[in-house]
Amino acid sequence: MSLLTESVSLAAQSIRTDWTHQEVAALFDLPFNDLLFQAQTVHRQFFDPNQVQISSLLSIKTGACPEDCAYCPQSVHYQTDLDNEGLMALPAVISKASEARNNGATRFCMGAAYRSPNSKQLERIVAMVKAVHDLGMETCATLGMLDHQQARQLKEAGLDYYNHNLDTSEAYYSEIITTRTYQDRLDTLKAVREAGLKVCCGGILGMGESRQDRVDMLHTMATLPEHPGSVPINQLIQVAGTPLENAAEVVPIDFVTVIAVARLLMPASYIRLSAGRTEMSDEMQALCFFAGANSIFYGERLLTMENPDMDSDQLLLKKLGMKPEPLQAGSH
Fold it and tell me: Which of 74-88, 89-103, 263-277 has the weakest average pLDDT?
């Protein structure tokens, strides 16, 4: 056993799913420098601090979603000038996945604006998952709520990850979404876990939530039966026509704090710096990486939202002496 493997093995013994609210709140109370030092120390026990996992996200079905998520331009409840698009054809998805792989992405995520896919829609998506899996990439999907049978179908097709974000705390949830409950979210995560899929689950900052809401959200994630394999932390993109178009912007240090606390609570998870990077300076992103973020979405679009172009990301990683994480053999 190598020293690195032994170190990770020992560190894995400290992974906990029994955090208390008080313990999570205490991490938020740490002096910023102490918090970042602890987060970077833990990060190095599990990951190469100079590698970033690259994912690509494609909207395979856009708009006309019946949910009323207050942040989302794809909701039928809001006028956002978004063009609705039906489920993409399989060859087009394969082409986009191949392009992403050639540009360095190791995981390809497919998102569809559904409350929950029906059997015919899922059948077409299963074919997409199989095709992307055959390209040698990790596969991820976010399709709304799933039941146990749907989760098993996706697992059998070769899906690696299923994304279903908590978005915020249970207490604040009804302020953001009224067309489904927080328990609906947890039930989908349970179905995904029981099907043997890896969970991708995160949240959004800047929706008017309090610090306690951020504490509660991270506490819920960190006390799931198993930590999410990926934890996307999003900064709200304020979209005209949505209820949150005038929400107050997140204080950058507060955002970095959430990244660091997430790293300490879920040390073996990939912490993904997700939506909102176009509004972040290079320095803010560098602080996020130091705090334990080690995954980004690559490409100019995140579903319907803008994302830094690949040249900008390559330049930033070069400045920081960081490099993309290679796809591990047998990662499926």
Answer: 74-88
